Structures are given as structure tokens and as C-alpha cells.
Amino acid sequence: MILPIVAYGDPVLRKKCKEISKDYPKLDELIENMWETMYNAYGVGLAAPQIGRPIRLFLVDASPFADDENIDEKEREELKKLKKTFINARIVEEEGEEWAFNEGCLSIPEIREDVFRKPQITIEYQDEDFKEHREVYTGLAARVIQHEYDHIEGILFTDKLSSLKKRLIKGKLKNISKGKIKIDYKMRFPEMKKAR
Asked: Where are the catalytic residues (predicted)?
């Protein structure tokens, strides 16, 4: 089932999310719905707060980035294989010199900006079967994971912009929260919710 994606301005996007256990109600169904929702919106990642759940759960499918001609074969293979569910994730290390890449977000449609992130991460997480993993990711794979990880920490990519950039997009962000945008996927807008 395709769920509405929560728009910028909703308090759930600012919550530091809670860990979950195996007995979280209808977890398999929730994960399946999140995959369907993400693909319907042409996303490469989706975090639980983006569908209104303040829990430490996010999905990533970085394979669309594998089509980029500017990346080497090793990174292309890593991106093709990166289709995972991350539960109770913790980034334990970020390394290297920060680099910029143009990011967007399903909760903040129509805004794309360069964001600086470190090129390598080490992450610990559980999969859908609650099996523990500790993995290292680099390049675009690391970036996609960092973006989704930020969501479960209550951080948005716009928080990482300079104060000048933030001022320049302030009006656009306000319009998003009021639902004054054209999008081709289901969204839930905080300002419209208040008006009811």
C-alpha cells in the first residue's frame, strides 16, 4: 500500500527516533509498504519518520545511481547491490574529507542543494530478521545511507546548508509545508492538517 510521505514542517521529521524490537506491530507489512511508497515516488531511500513513524527504520536502493557514467566500476557494483533495510542503525564512524553532492528529499520536493558529507562510513544495524551487521560504505552509497540515517536522528539535508542558502529557500520551504507545490506522489502536509 502506498503511504503518504510527510512534508517538511511536520514535527515527526524533527524527532530522534526510537529503537524497535522484533515484535513491532506489523513490521513486515510496514517495510513492504515503505518499499512500495519509495518506488512510487522514484526515491532511492525512505525513512520511517517520512511516513509518520518516529522509529529507527529506513530503506535504501541506490541502484539508480549505478547508471551514472562518472563513477568507476567498483562503485557501480556496490551501488547495484545496495538494496537494504536498516533497523536500529548507528553510524559508528565517518571518515575522509567532506565532498559536495546535489541532494534532494521526498519530504522536501522541488528543492535540491549541494550538501557536504564524509566519503566513508561504518554503520551497525539489524536487517529485517534482526540479524546484526557492521559494514563500511563509501562514495554515493555512503551518502545515501547518511541522508536516510539523518532522518532517524531528526536531521534534514536543509539543516546542513549555509545560513545564506537557508534564507534563500525559506519561502519554498514554507510553501511545501502548506502544500503549495505540484508533486506526483501522495503527501501529507502539516499546515493543511492544522487548517482542518
From this structure: 148
Superfamily for the 5-98+120-155 domain:
Peptide deformylase (3.90.45.10)
Answer yes or no: is 17 a known binding residue: no
CA-wise closest residue to 178 among 168, 190, 186: 190
> With the C-alpha atoms ordered 40, 42, 183, 14, is the resulting torsion angle positive or negative?
positive
How many CA atoms are closer than 13 Å to the CA of 92, on its beta-carbon side?
10
Q: Is the pLDDT at 167 greater than 80, yes or no? A: yes
Of 73, 148, 153, 191, the active-site residue reads 148
Does the annotation mark 148 as catalytic? yes
3-state class of 87 per DSSP?
strand
Measure Cα distances from 67 to 77, 117, 133 in Å. 10, 22, 27
pTM of the model: 0.94
Q: What is the mean pLDDT of residues 163-181?
A: 95
